[in-house]
Amino acid sequence: MSDITIKDIAKICGVGVSTVSRAMNNHPDINPATKERIMQIIEEHNYIPNNSARNLKRTESNTIGLLMKGIGNPFFQGMFDFFEEMLSRKNFSFVLQRVGFDEDEVNVALELEKEKKLKGIIFLGGQIREDMKAFDMLSVPYVLCTVGWKEERQAPNLVAIDDRKESFKMVDYLCSLGHRRIVIITSAEEEMSVGNLRYEGYRQALDKNGIPFDPSLVCFMKPELESFSAENGYAVTQELLASGTEFTAIFAVSDMVAIGAGKALLEAGKRIPQDYSVAGFDGLSLTHFFHPSITTIHQPREEMVKAAVKMLLDMIDGRDCRRIQIFEAQLEIQESTGKAKAS
Amino acid sequence: MSDITIKDIAKICGVGVSTVSRAMNNHPDINPATKERIMQIIEEHNYIPNNSARNLKRTESNTIGLLMKGIGNPFFQGMFDFFEEMLSRKNFSFVLQRVGFDEDEVNVALELEKEKKLKGIIFLGGQIREDMKAFDMLSVPYVLCTVGWKEERQAPNLVAIDDRKESFKMVDYLCSLGHRRIVIITSAEEEMSVGNLRYEGYRQALDKNGIPFDPSLVCFMKPELESFSAENGYAVTQELLASGTEFTAIFAVSDMVAIGAGKALLEAGKRIPQDYSVAGFDGLSLTHFFHPSITTIHQPREEMVKAAVKMLLDMIDGRDCRRIQIFEAQLEIQESTGKAKAS
DNA sequence: TTGTACGCGTTATCAT
DNA sequence: ATGATAACGCGTACAA
Known about the structure:
The structure is a homodimer. Chain A is α/β, with parallel strands linked by helices. Chain A is 39% helix and 15% strand. In chain A, strands 2-1-3-4-5-11 form a six-stranded parallel beta sheet, with helices on both faces. Chain A is elongated, with a radius of gyration of 26 Å. Chain A binds chain B through residues 1-2, 46, 48, 50-53, 55-56, 71-72, 74, 76-78, 80, 84, 96, 98, 100, 107, 110-111, 114-116, 137, 139, 230-231, 234, 259-260, 262-263, 266-267, 285-286, 288-291, 293, and chain B through 1-3, 46, 48, 50-53, 55-56, 71-72, 74, 76-78, 80, 84, 96, 98, 100, 110-111, 114-116, 137, 139, 230-231, 234, 259-260, 262-263, 266-267, 285-286, 288-291, 293. Chain A binds a DNA duplex through helix 1, helix 2 and helix 4.
């Protein structure tokens, strides 16, 4: 079968290869009649141009690369559609490229950029590193979207929320409900993961509210279970309950973890929020459907996507633009949080 | 910066291009010393080979394509890892290719196959079509994994469950609990979607249990909301409650829909399973974390992935193998289903 | 062990 | 409006 090339089509049509190329690529200077004839032959013969050859030869392509670290992260669900809509409206197409958990996203980007002659790149997820110099090797504009960051100067081309501030907001809210023994479930300590940043916000909120920090209230996700998963929150919370540690609220650094934590509490016969308050982070729509629905920090995903795309296109077109956009997230109070029990 | 090619590297090293090529591709006949030197120069200059050129020139590539219709479907989460593990163990790499909701997966496959010189293709999701001839245009082996199918003869190279049978299993189980007015929430009628197949199983189970079919118990997902989403199940169930229709159980054709349905019931002050039983389909781990946890049909995803990969590799190697593997799913009874109320 | 030269399938350039 | 031809960057016979 197949391996029919542009030459074959040209031969069959009795024209030169360049005419066939013109027909396929909607070039202006071609006779509509011959174009039609060629396209029909192409159709009949199921000719499929070879993209490798095209990419090799083409000087440019209206393609932007979307690199996701942690595809499968529910937080990213639904962001595809926004990207697709935004980009196609501007006549761009995009390639989705998964970045493995231990892969270096810059290397992946470097390859893809050359292979596909990308016009720009959007990085989704992951976190800013100490050494941002690697990104300088990219020869096209890029934007970091929803990645963890610590200091603005580290990060050019950033669209994100302020994880510390939002985390502070949540914990401060819990304090305002009278909670003084607030458990945090966070990720194992790595540099600058969002877990760490959110943990810092937790500490700051305690400070502000004059609550002494108690290390026994800090729980880390289990490394043997999937990070940021409901399973993890569930296991951690079961252990917490078994330990006899006293607390009145749990703040999980992601909604899925909060869901797992909530389940462990309910299953142990505890009531939410009467006995314990539970709070998450991210604003997944899933929080609405847990019962009780879970108080969370709602990240404005659609706006962030739009901002990231706009920023990227501005950079591509050489337009001037703000290079850092920190979005405000919303404290979404739902059913899972309430006044602390009198102690 | 960039656009440094293999020639440049060759020049810098004072060797021919083929030697550089040999160094990069781990060819045996090369002096280890020169290889080392070349690799170092490559490193220093951040040289990245152009994949388009490689793919164009290469005759084969141990790559298999993974085409997913409906990335973002939570059912697919975690299947990546299984694929990656299985394939890398056999020294294959894979490219993940998203297929848009209205794109034709065969066309996408055709392009990718040529571009990447694929060794094989796995299609994930979607459903079998009336006309399977399109797939004949593919020039490499392929396997359909977890797609809806109606008759075995339609579908060569299939790894899936029997949606009708499993759906029957669930509804039969509900009947055995004494339920006679069982609502089904299914997808709007399209040809051969899994929703349809699961609906057929529902009908058959009613028949077997001597329960007359009542059209007022058939609910369709709202087309204006996302298909198979919790939002959809929630909205449909609210409407159902408002309609005053009598029923004692809800069978949703997917877990997410069941979660939405459950929330609507709980929010209306109903108890699960004392007032209403709720059942889902797919076996998402999320069903464990809803409260009450949701009875579901658990699809053996890991085994199906393994079977699909094995089948594909067997075909690639020209080995003989069963071309259709229908897996048994497990009725996973959890907290959301119980005996029907006395009427 | 290494280098030269050709070709992969396409688009861009320059003729006509 | 169309055709011939030179690249694009790399792998690989083949010669050395």
